[in-house]
Automatic annotation (TrEMBL):
This is Levanase/fructan beta-fructosidase/levanbiose-producing levanase. It comes from Plantibacter cousiniae (nom. nud.). Keywords: Glycosidase, Hydrolase. Residues 104-132 are annotated as: Disordered. InterPro entries: ConA-like_dom_sf (IPR013320), Glyco_hydro_32 (IPR001362), Glyco_hydro_32_AS (IPR018053), Glyco_hydro_32_C (IPR013189), Glyco_hydro_32_N (IPR013148), Glyco_hydro_beta-prop_sf (IPR023296). It holds the Pfam family Glyco_hydro_32N.
Length: 480
């Protein structure tokens, strides 16, 4: 057991459960003015197990209220990941989740809620899709409409086969298997938590593409020590067949801790908003936990933009972050090789802009009282940003915890970096979200110090905003 002294400071503007284990976001849905997030949850402890759906909701994606456990495990059934859609005028929510039976069989089941997700009725016909498989999971329901009319599409994985099975339904009850995507890409991984999100390239509705999101986790011998990660593919979708434009999977986040992200159903203004679990199966079980273990990322708004003739995924922080930064007049800091303290006085966000042809190498360092450190280095000659986390507190978590993530940058031109730090959650949005880095960082509970230095004397534009910390006890209604 880890003692309180080594507990991670609880984030203030991210979703964490008041206590116990949490992994994947499930059933993300915007419904009657609230963002609902269900999540993989152990109601009884800080380790993975007794898998159930926890539940929280928010009006602004910043402050979350935790509700009673929504779908509880039984002696016959573990409740794995899945999704929720708000369907029909009565405001009924329909959930699909993976039932894992005692013999390890994984099949898809259904439940409905008529009270905004607080209580759920399981379908007496469950499971409604059963292939006798032990790795058939993570149903994601999306909406699809063309000249033939409206239908629901369910994406599930055959995780070990590295395939996405596509099903179609007009009534959310009976499902027809219409296609299978994959396998492709690296072997030695399972595919988990698929999603397929329509996005207009450069905001042009006549240039619609479908973005397949995949979470992949190493299996077998000689596993990649980097562990879990997410990838995406841009392509076309005709209601059954997904046709990628290019065969290679693109890395979705360059850090170590962004997994199982999927989109919200019914987000306002047709926006695409995803939420991910900020951990990695490589060491998730080894993280200090007391009383909570597991956090969600900042919600991210997705779009597609053309870079070098190809559509690239752009991930932006949520409105509450963008608005806070937009309200601040950036200051210009005169930099040199002597580090300048940026006075990030608590948890918050900082936005920096610099011209690497003037600054030369730029070094950003985060430190706090455990001796842990994060070093972010922009080396203009390599057109990359290197993010390294190190220190004794991090080394004791797991031998593979210390890491360096390399973020490819477009080149030697002005660069923009949005840094969010909330307790142990570090998220970087580079160049307006063309690349992201999400890392858990063990810096301790004291005030973190953010310093900046450059190779050559130069001006750097800096905006720093501290985000209000809502005490967990006021924020969270303890689960029943
Ligand atoms: C992904 C995952 C899913 C599964 C769930 C179990 O992190 O392995 O495939 O449904 O977690 O908790």
């Amino acid at each position: 057991m880890h003692d309180e002294q080594h507990a991670l400071p609880r984030p203030g503007f991210h979703l964490t459960p008041e206590r116990n284990w949490m992994n994947d976001p499930n059933g993300l849905v915007f419904h009657r003015g609230r963002w609902h997030a269900f999540f993989q949850y152990n109601p009884e402890g800080g380790d993975w197990g007794n898998m159930s759906w926890g539940h929280a909701s928010s009006v602004d994606l910043q402050h979350w209220e935790e509700h009673p456990v929504a779908l509880r495990y039984t002696t016959e059934e573990q409740v794995y990941s899945g999704s929720v859609v708000a369907a029909g005028p009565g405001g009924r929510l329909t959930a699909y989740y993976t039932s894992v039976s005692t013999d390890g069989r994984q099949a898809q089941s259904r439940a409905t809620s008529d009270d905004d997700g607080l209580t759920w009725q399981r379908d007496p016909d469950n499971p409604i899709l059963d292939r006798g498989s032990h790795a058939f999971r993570d149903p994601k329901i999306i909406r699809y409409e063309d000249a033939a009319g409206f239908r629901w599409i369910m994406l599930t994985v055959e995780a070990v086969e590295r395939q996405v099975l596509v099903y179609s339904s007009t009534d959310l009850r009976t499902w027809e298997h219409v296609n299978t995507v994959g396998p492709f890409g690296p072997t030695g991984v399972v595919w988990e938590c698929p999603d397929l999100i329509p996005l207009a390239v450069d905001g042009r509705p006549d240039e619609l593409r479908w973005v397949l999101l995949l979470s992949t986790n190493p299996i077998g011998d000689a596993q990649d020590p980097d562990g879990s990660s997410m990838s995406y593919l841009v392509g076309d979708f005709d209601g059954s067949v997904f046709t990628p434009e290019r065969a290679e999977l693109q890395r979705l986040d360059h850090g170590r801790d962004f997994y199982a992200a999927v989109g919200f159903d019914g987000a306002p203004d047709g926006e695409a908003v995803i939420l991910g679990w900020m951990s990695n199966w490589r060491y998730a079980a080894d993280l200090p936990a007391s009383p909570w273990r597991g956090a969600m990322s900042l919600p991210r708004r997705l779009s597609l933009t053309t870079v070098d003739g190809q559509p690239r995924l752009v991930q932006e922080p949520p409105a509450f972050v963008r608005e806070r930064l937009a309200a601040i007049e950036p200051t210009t800091v005169a930099l040199s090789s002597d580090a300048v303290d940026l006075a990030l006085d608590g948890d918050g966000v900082a936005e920096l802009r610099w011209d690497p042809s003037i600054t030369g190498e730029l070094r950003l360092r985060l430190t706090a009282d455990t001796g842990g450190a994060v070093l972010i280095v922009h080396d203009p000659t390599s057109s990359s940003l290197a993010v390294t986390r190190s220190g004794a507190a991090m080394d004791t978590v797991h031998p593979d915890f210390a890491s360096t993530s390399i973020v490819p940058l477009a080149g030697d031109r002005p660069t923009r970096l949005l840094l969010s730090l909330d307790g142990p959650l570090l998220e970087l949005f580079v160049d307006g979200g063309l690349a992201t880095v999400s890392d858990l960082v063990l810096l301790g509970s004291g005030r973190p110090t953010l310093t900046l230095a450059s190779e050559r004397a130069s001006p750097v534009s800096v905006a720093v905003a501290v985000l209000d910390r809502v005490p967990a006890t006021d924020q969270v209604h303890a689960p029943a």
